[in-house]
Design goal:
There is one protein chain. The chain is mainly α. Among the domains are: 44 residues; 239 residues, Type II secretion system (T2SS), domain F (Receptor-associated Protein, Up-down Bundle). The protein is 76% helix and 5% strand. The chain contains 16 helices and 3 strands.
Length: 409
């Protein structure tokens, strides 16, 4: 069953939203566990049963894309700035959007708005569509009466994220193509080429060089055990995926992901740039530092860096300055720490953090431009070594047989 609730958290802030529970008592216990004292709990009317049935088949549904969210934010900025009522705006966008998934989500949000729920609380029912950062920005916009400005900032943040993802994909396109082609060539050689040469050599009864024996042994192993290898790889992938879903597994995975050669430092720069810009946006919107750090930490897609951001929040709650907690996190360069210090002294922390984000973005642009240049020599050397091994393994016994034939002649 679905319940709408209204209550106050530990700081006395009014919280509204919905949650699923077997009954009213279970819903109240869940709210108390979250630190919310319930004031009103009502069973939600089953207006969206059709959508709920579709959500049961969510595995077959497409996700709302980043481009669709950007268009949604732009439209909401224009319509709310023009003074059109919010419910009318949402209903109109739900009817005109080309995405059935987004249309269902907007319909559900509109129904919740008509029931008296705030927009931020209504969006919390769709965590796979709206991130914590998105909901926090809408919450700030509703409380300050500047919802149009919140949608404008969200569109800018999402556009930067989309552009960064596109640049990363473009930089990795060539290395990925080369690796796939190399793997395909290896499979063809091991499954088709080497077995034929091996049969020829066995008929001649010649002693094979060590390198050829290694190639023939590898090919025989793949031919004999390839079903077990596919099963083992799939099982290992499934186990790793389940391990990554745990808190400890996600942190360990994200930590070592940042230590990968060439790619790791670039991923760290992208994550820190996003953190600095999102943090600046939260502060500029008037959100308290500790709450802004919480929102940004939850919105960060790297669990290891998110943990450090939360530790910064704990330090500030103990009375430490932002500069001291940033220095203790060991995530920032001396130049960045100096800019944070200037921001604290001048009271323009949001501007300094935007400068930090711009600085990181320049490093990301430079790193993306050099990414292909850095990986290309490694791929060329790897291909050269592989071709050399295959050539020597195949042609050495042929040369030996030719020399033996000439000696007998």
């Amino acid at each position: 069953m679905q319940f709408n609730y209204r209550g106050k958290d530990n700081r006395g802030v009014l919280q509204q939203g919905s949650l699923a529970a077997p009954n009213v008592d279970a819903a109240a216990n869940e709210l108390m566990r979250r630190g919310i004292t319930p004031l009103v709990i009502r069973e939600q009317e089953q207006k969206t049963s059709g959508m709920g049935a579709i959500n049961n088949l969510a595995i077959f549904r497409k996700k709302v894309t980043l481009d669709e969210l950007i268009v949604f934010c732009r439209q909401m900025h224009a319509l709310t700035k023009a003074g059109i009522p919010l419910i009318r705006t949402m209903r109109g966008l739900a009817e005109t959007t080309r995405s059935p998934e987004l249309s269902d989500v907007l319909d559900d949000i509109t129904n919740r708005l008509e029931g008296g729920v705030t927009m931020a609380s209504a969006m919390q029912a769709h965590p796979k569509v709206f991130s914590e950062l998105f909901i926090a920005m809408i919450h700030v916009g509703e409380n300050t009466g500047m919802l149009d400005d919140s949608f404008k900032r969200l569109s800018e943040i999402l556009e930067l994220e989309r552009d960064t993802k596109r640049r990363v994909k473009q930089a990795l396109r060539y290395p990925t193509f080369v690796l796939v082609a190399l793997f395909a060539a290896l499979m063809v050689v091991n499954f088709l080429v080497i077995p034929r040469f091996a049969s020829v050599f066995s008929k001649m009864g010649a002693d094979l060089p060590f390198l050829t024996q290694v190639l023939v042994g590898t090919s025989n192993f793949l031919l004999s055990y390839w079903p077990y290898m596919i099963f083992g790889t799939a099982a290992a992938g499934l186990l790793i995926r389940q391990w990554k879903q745990t808190d400890n597994g996600q942190q360990v995975w994200d930590r070592y992901k940042l230590k990968m050669p060439i790619i790791g430092p670039l991923l760290e720069l992208i994550t820190l740039s996003r953190f600095a810009r999102n943090f600046a946006t939260m502060l500029k919107a008037g959100m308290p530092v500790t709450q802004a750090l919480t929102v940004v930490a939850d919105a960060t897609d790297n669990a290891w860096i998110s943990r450090h951001i939360k530790e910064m929040r704990y330090g500030i709650e103990r009375g430490e300055s932002l500069l001291r907690t940033a220095r203790g996190s060991k995530m920032f360069t001396p130049l960045i720490l100096q800019m944070i210090a200037v921001g604290e002294e001048t009271g323009s922390m949001d501007d300094m953090l935007n400068n930090v984000a711009d600085f990181y973005d320049e490093d990301v642009d430079y790193g993306l431009k050099r990414l292909a240049e850095s990986i290309e020599p490694i791929l060329i050397v790897a291909m050269g070594v592989l071709v050399l091994i295959l050539a020597l393994g195949v042609f050495l016994p042929i040369w030996d047989l030719g020399a033996a034939a000439m000696g007998r002649g």
